[in-house]
């Protein structure tokens, strides 16, 4: 059986949610909502994180992948994409109900109901012919989002370059404003930016994850060389507002 | 490469007909039939030619020809078939006739006019397909009188070809992606765009009235173009489509003055938050001809006063299905405005903030709606409000509670009154006990769907074999079932196979992968075997649980009428696929995922793929060389290899294969992540 890491979290109960309900519901959201949960795909050939950042997600993945091949029937902890065959809107809506029910017990707020819904944002990459969509609620950290973006866009970045394994990696580099997480694809640096509620384009990585999910309306992966002239970072924005 | 061959009998037939000088009496020609009947084409010497694949098994075709041509086939009486062997990906086959030939002799013209007047009464698609194959003049007459076009795969035939053959269409039904696209197995941007079809129809069918699209990509500009191009446009139905938002709906509302039906069902309606448009208020201020308005899937706030006013000035409105942003109090007002509704989608069924409703008031609204026969919605229902629908339960034919999180106790008082129910959709939260109540009350049930509240592999699951047996005992007329569960037994499935002999659709989804009979620990082979053995009318089957090659042997042996088969995480070897492709003669749609089937299995279907609409295989054991071999041997098949990354397309393993017959060859809108072999 899988390591004990994920067992409690995968034990999803049907009764009216009790104290741990928020957590369970959150796990349910992460697991079963979202159109494209890349972390859920079984093929995890890409191991592209730098050692420091990968610790957290690696342990999650290991928990997921600890399948005993001799066991029958096999019960891998990670969910297969598109299984069970229930349409995603059905999953989303039920999660909304779950969460609004549990939140009703604690704090009556419309905000909670709105926050419970999936947070789909469009992702565009310079040079890629198609937009993609991701559900930010399916990720728990910038690292997970980064991994997913890498997988999505490595297809475009490596087109025409099948032979080489330059691939995709995440690198931190110092920007005038501080540390920034940048996607490096095939040697040229791409930087992930997002448009926030005010319509400003900001570098991804400055604010706490939850705040980012709430304020992000759209993502754009652009060439590092074009990053000059972005709006000041969120930190500076807050500072300026006093 | 295609080889055109005029067969001897065909040539004889045509010369015979043309030499005939007199009289309306003519013998029915013996028809050359092959599975490729839609590939009929007229050569320049005006003899009917049969297009066949190179190296094809002609022997087999001959056999089918003689056995097929029988009186019952002409009447379209054979189960699941016409001479075209079931539903087709379009009625093309006009490729060899570039210009209209010179008008036929006088007697032929009279006969054609008579024919047209008769044929216009033929409505059923399969009857029409049969009629069109009788001879050339029937073909022409049928083409002139076909009003509704049905294209099951938008890539099987091109818009140009369709428009060339059928000159007078008023309605189009068009399907794009296959069903597995609903489950994130197709990357976004794969295709199935409506634009090229729209462009062709705008010039060819200015009197177009009805469009129904399923799993197509429709943009806002498409909708705008549609609204502008067809002044008589009346009915728009979009099912599981994507690509459009409220902007497109607004244009439809404004410009389609004769709109009767606007049904938006399970579409993925996307809007940037700032761009949400109040489309409801865009309907013209005058009385509308609306009969049906469904927008449950349009998940954005509704301008309620505009909606209420719209309903008030739509005297013909009989079907209204609102989204979850309509509260219970608002619903009550809508019902007061439209007391003659037959179908109602109730929205949230929850009181809004500051709405003070008691059940008695609500019940009164239902008492007044004497015509209601179909209820759905209940998106956020507070269980204590559910009994408000009691006054209409006895008349209900269809009830969809599949978003209502209720228990058996909450369901019982309602369901026990629904004695005329034919269709019932519910969440598994009602448990086996709830299903027992359904079995007791709904003796006339034809369709049941039980959806999972927790759609994950390791959830508790509240329904099981117990519930299935109860249903089978109580609902003997059951024809269609979709059942999600975590625990099942062979004996329960066997019981259903014996009790419900009218089953046409059997879809059982045991959510845990490879899960055996939870009591005997054996594979689920015997259960599904019993279904195909005992349910002689079965045309659609979805299997799950732990399954070996054996179940596929059963399916191949007994499932002769099966047209659609869904397989996931099943089988031991290529034998399974081989059995199915060799045994299921009516098979048209085969969708497989995560099963150990490889090239040997794939190649065993070569004799049959032209009879099918499509084959989908993902996460199986196919290789590029195997798929290439199929592509080479079958020139009228489009073989698509789909990868998440272009790099995948070069490796020898094929992650996703989608193949389908087509008259057009490789499509020209192929995205980067698709490789057509």
Characterize the structure shown.
The complex is a heterodimer of chains A (242) and B (677). With 242 residues, chain A is of the alpha+beta class. Helix content of chain A is 36%, strand content 18%. Chain A has eight helices and seven strands, in the order αααααββαββββαβα. In chain A, strands 1, 2, 3, 4, 5, 6 and 7 form a seven-stranded mixed β-sheet that branches. Chain A is globular and about 45 Å long. In chain B, helix 4 (106-119) crosses helix 6, helix 11 (304-312) runs parallel beside helix 12 and helix 17 (465-474) packs parallel to helix 18 (490-499). Chain B starts with a strand and ends with a strand. The radius of gyration of chain B is 27 Å and the shape is globular. In chain B, 51% of the residues are buried. Chain B has 677 residues and is of the alpha/beta class. The longest helix of chain B has 14 residues, at 106-119. The chains are: A alpha+beta (242), B alpha/beta (677). At the A-B interface, helix 2, helix 4 and helix 6 of A face loops of B. Chain B: Part of a SCF (SKP1-cullin-F-box) protein ligase complex. May interact with auxin and auxin-responsive proteins.
